[in-house]
Amino acid sequence: MSRSLLSIAELGETGLRRLLDISEHMAEVNRRPNPKVPALRGKTVCNVFFEDSTRTRLSFETAAKRLSADTMNFSVSQSSLNKGESLRDTVETIAAMGVDAFVIRHGSSGAPWQLGEWTSASVINAGDGWHAHPTQALLDMYTVRTALNRPVSVDGGSFDGLRVAMVGDIKHSRVARSTTEAFKLLGADVTWVSPKTLLPPTHDENVVANLDQVIDDIDILYLLRMQNERMSEALVPHLREYTARFGLTPERAARLGQHVLVMHPGPMNRGVEMAVDPGELPGSVINQQVTNGISVRMAVLFELLGSGSENSLTGNTES
Amino acid sequence: MNTPSDVRKQVLGPDDVRRAITRMAHEIIERNRGTAGVALVGIQTGGVWVAEALAAEISRIEAAEEGGADSIVIGSVDASLYRDDIGLRPVSPGSVSDLTFTVDGVTVVLVDDVLYTGRTVRAALDAIGDYGRPKAVQLAAIVDRGHRELPIRPDFVGKNLPTSAEESVSVTPDGVTITQGTDT
User: Fold this and answer.
1) Do A25 and A69 belong to one domain?
2) Is-cis flag, bond preceding B45, omega within 30?
3) Which of A73, A213, B126, B140 has the greatest number of beta carbons closer than 10 A?
4) For residue B78, what are the domain limits?
5) Do B93 and A302 touch (CB under 8 A)?
């Protein structure tokens, strides 16, 4: 694995499986009464968020703290970017303070790669434009692995035969892209359920245009956030029509098989894609997704910052 | 430790390993006057099978004595997040800690296959401390190969085995082998 986590494609299947294994470790730490280990003492992680975020930023910050790393938070609205400092100068300034990893979210696709050109610190992509959100994909895989007891690891196992319906605005969703990639790497079958206006121009996924066409034959229902801000682009005629064709309504919830997991990356639009109370869905793992996010991000930080190139200090790893 | 090396020397056979475990089991019972309030904790991953073998042997011994046996408490601990060489060598996921009992007030017998620099034991002690405050911690290892780098000594040893740092030692139920050339 490289020193940075930028996309699922660059991580690859082996790296993905490895991180799921390490996440299992971190989940055990998180179940303890005192969920903190000294693994990353002396390391500094800087969160650089150019877009709004609740769970991802807090999740990364919690993850770093549970590994005993120090955290810095950079928020754009209170920064010298407002005085006209360039992104590059800002990043180099922060790096000069001694940062081991940047966690970056940016509205422009590719921004984390650009950042990687400017710093020798590790870079973790916490969402770039419409492009990628690899830690979301990791926590989704970890959630499925745990909830369905499918122990995919470096030693084997797969999601073969799992049927996933990913529903909503695929085009603008970095979550859809990364999570679909990860599901396919592990062997699941992904169907996109989306209006044509909300599909990317080129793709090779199966697509259906109505949730009813697939709802009886799935194992995982993955609802994406209907991005209300896109409504001005008239990509969907009306939110109510969207709910009628793509939303999880009480009628559709009643049709869901007992075994079906319901997932959502958050934040949710109640009454739009989620027209039922998710707390009443037996298969909802939405809260687990958030909880698992911490374990998975701990795994990513530990893998990037806790790993070295020397095989061993003493040549032998026994006690 | 699968070293593609030519020089591989078996120093203990399966019977020797079995006898060492039996003797260590007796010593653990003797030292602690039984096994009430004692927990065996194997260090992931090499110490886990040793802890299980010791537990089985202790149960067998106690069952043969009057009154039968309490089943001995057993667990495992992973020390990888507490090592002092984090950042110096590749991260290896290993296996997850399994400590389902309360550590407070318990006599923990840490169990490993090979005792070498003592650094893993140091890390395991820190890990145990995060679960609670044991009454005491004792250390058992099938092989003590020397070369300690920390002030740590075992309480129960199967075999003292002088080695050089250029060798690696492998312990399984089938025996103990020394291989020229370090692993990994």
Assistant:
1) yes
2) yes
3) B140
4) 15-164
5) no
Residue B181 included in any domain? no
Q: What whole-number distance in Å separates Cα of residue A8 and Cα of residue A10?
A: 5
Burial bucket for residue A84 (CB in 10 Å: 0-12, 13-18, 19+): exposed
Q: How much of chain B is helix, strand and coil, in % rounded to 5? A: 30, 30, 40
> How many independent structural domains does chain A possess?
2
Interface of B with A in 130-149 (CB under 8 A): 130-131, 141, 145, 149
Residues of B in contact with A305 (CB under 8 A): 87
Within-domain flag for A204: yes
Query: Which chain B positions have a beta carbon within 8 Å of A29's beta carbon?
Result: 81
Q: Are residues A297 and A219 in the same domain?
A: no
Which residues are CB-contacts of B113 (< 8 A; sequence separation ≥ 6)? A318, B46, B47, B49, B50, B141, B142, B143, B171
Q: What is the pTM of this model?
A: 0.90
Q: Which of B119, B120, B130 minimises the CB distance to A32?
A: B130
Burial classification of residue A189, based on how many CB atoms lie within 10 Å of its CB (0-12 exposed, 13-18 middle, 19 or more buried): middle
Cβ neighbours of A39 in B, within 8 Å: 81-82, 86
Give me the interface pTM, i.e. the ipTM. Answer: 0.82
Please write the tens of the pLDDT for every residue from A127-149. Answer: 999 999 999 999 999 999 999 99
Residue A228 domain-assigned (yes or no): yes
Mark yes or no for CB contact A319/B130 under 8 Å.
Answer: no
Q: Is the dihedral of CA A305, A310, A311, A317 positive or negative?
A: negative
- The pLDDT tens digits of the residues spanning A261-302 come to 999 999 999 999 999 999 899 999 999 999 999 999 999 999
Question: Is there a single domain that holds both residue A215 and residue A256?
Answer: yes
Q: Taking CA A126 as the corner, what is the angle to CA A135 and CA A149, rounded to the nearest 5 degrees?
A: 10
Interchain proximity A307–B85, CB inside 8 Å: no
List residues of chain A with CB under 8 Å from any CB of chain B: 18, 21-22, 24-25, 28-29, 32, 34, 36-40, 67, 154, 302-303, 305-319
